[in-house]
Amino acid sequence: MNAYWMEAKCEFLKTARMRSYSVSTILFPLMFYCFFGLAMGRQQMPGMAMPMAHYLLATYGAFGVMGAALYAFGVGIAVERGLGWLEVKRASPMPPAAYFLAKAAVSLAFGAIVIALLFTLGALFGGVRMPAAQWLLMGGTLVAGGLPFCALGLAIGSFAGPNSAPATVNMIYLPMAFCAGLWLPFEFLPKAIQQAAPFLPAYHFSQIALSILHAPVHGAVVGHVGALAAFTAVFAGIAWIGQTREREKMYG
Amino acid sequence: MPVAELSGVTKRYGEVAALGGISLALERGELVALLGPNGAGKTTAVRILLGLARPTTGHAAVFGQDPASRKARLRRGALLQVAKVPETLRVREHIELFSSYYEKPLPLAETIAAAGLGGIENRLFGDLSGGQKQRVLFALAICGNPGLLLLDEPTVGLDVESRRALWARIRGFVARGGSVLLTTHHLEEADALAHRVVVLNHGRIVAEGTPQEIKARTASSGLEDAFLAIVGQSEEMAQEVMQ
Ligand SMILES: Nc1ncnc2c1ncn2[C@@H]1O[C@H](COP(=O)(O)OP(=O)(O)OP(=O)(O)O)[C@@H](O)[C@H]1O
Ligand SMILES: [Mg+2]
């Protein structure tokens, strides 16, 4: 049991001290929210059911949580696998699950930190008001929504090389965030992108988060939850293939 | 029961025969040095005993167990060549983490002292010199109080002084009843440490014996000359077999 706890603790310390990780996962979503969510202020945008500061709280929350998971898993595993550290751990008596559980716990923890800071900004400067229960529900949903992206990160990290992993993650993460309407409201995007969005897990994630704000969402929430579950299964399957391939290479 | 055992182990990577059938047994309290030119199969042999690679044919065991089993891993420590160790953990944190994997680890202070890390245990790994990093890896290998150490080129990149200090630590481990299999390119290292030297070439054992026996066999005064003579002979033999 102690090994699981120590693994999570060390994973957290290690990750928190990596400036590249803390900056890209914490600072970027907050900065973007300030630019787009707060600067455009409380005014009602044409064709939108709620002020930008409200809408973007949900979508930048989703953006931040996704980043925390994708970088921790996608980049973290690609580097540790590719440069031999994972092998040192595999030769040790580390419980194999401890490694992945610790990464998941740290991804969710950083997701929670981003959400807490974002909510503070929204409440203090964005004029966002909600009953406590709604804040909590939205925060909890956003943090839990990191899990499918842990699976996506695991899939990327099981294939990507240590040097190319950050670029690979960014190439998937950033366009997906944009096309799912996380940066700018979905309604503002070109029609073609809107039609393709259901093929992106980030779209379903943001629709679930928006539904908690009582924003009008596309499709039923159950459908979005189901879609995310399906994506998670697919990503886990891809990761499994990658890990198996790795083992076969080792065992030749 | 030997502490570690390879019997008739071959290992193929596609076309490459990394190991061509080697048998090797390591007894309690024994230090065996694996020597051989680049690509001889030393690392492959170590990886098989670590459960990181499976023999294509033949059998490997650590304390009578499958090398990949948890029982084997709990009684074994390893120092591998690794390109990058997480740099943002402190020395102490690295050791505490690996200690937590074992059932009866050494007390932290003892590991720190045994690996010569006193005074730098609160530094981040990334801030250490190459030799200090190597000492941390040695600490991770011994922190679980294992009965067997597998060391793949443990003194690579160390200056003379650090190398001798690490030798003393390895000798200390053996004196307490531990067994060690180490690979090295430094012949004087094998001479200074090993009870038995095993020379590999092209995945086969071409000589085996105490450092004295190996030297006597080729009438060489130093192990280095003996090594070159043995590897040279085995190359000639291989050519004859081919023709
Ligand atoms: N994962 C692998 N895939 C393919 N070939 C491999 C793999 N690992 C080792 N080999 C090959 O097996 C042979 C033995 O390699 P090994 O690493 O065991 O040599 P070594 O004795 O440790 O060499 P060095 O002194 O350079 O460390 C080499 O020809 C190497 O190219
Ligand atoms: Mg080697």
Outline the structure in words.
The complex is a heterodimer of chains A (252) and B (243). Chain A is mainly alpha-helical and 252 residues long. Chain A has one domain (2-251). Chain A is built from eleven helices and no strands. Chain A has helices at residues 2-16, 19-38, 52-82, 85-91, 96-125, 132-144, 147-159, 165-179, 191-196, 201-212, 221-251. In chain A, helix 3 runs antiparallel to helix 10 and helix 7 (147-159) runs parallel beside helix 11 (221-251). Chain A is globular and about 60 Å long. Chain B is of the alpha/beta class and 243 residues long. Chain B is 38% helix and 24% strand. Chain B has nine helices and nine strands. In chain B, the strands form two sheets. In chain B, strands 5-6-7-3-8-9 form a six-stranded mixed sheet, with helices on both faces. In chain B, strands 2-1-4 form a three-stranded antiparallel sheet. In chain B, strand 6, helix 6 (160-175) and strand 7 form a beta-alpha-beta unit. In chain B, helix 8 (211-217) packs across helix 9. Chain B is globular and about 60 Å long. The chains are: A mainly alpha (252), B alpha/beta (243). The structure holds adenosine-5'-triphosphate and magnesium ion. Adenosine-5'-triphosphate (ATP) is lined by residues 13, 16, 18, 36, 38-44 of chain B.
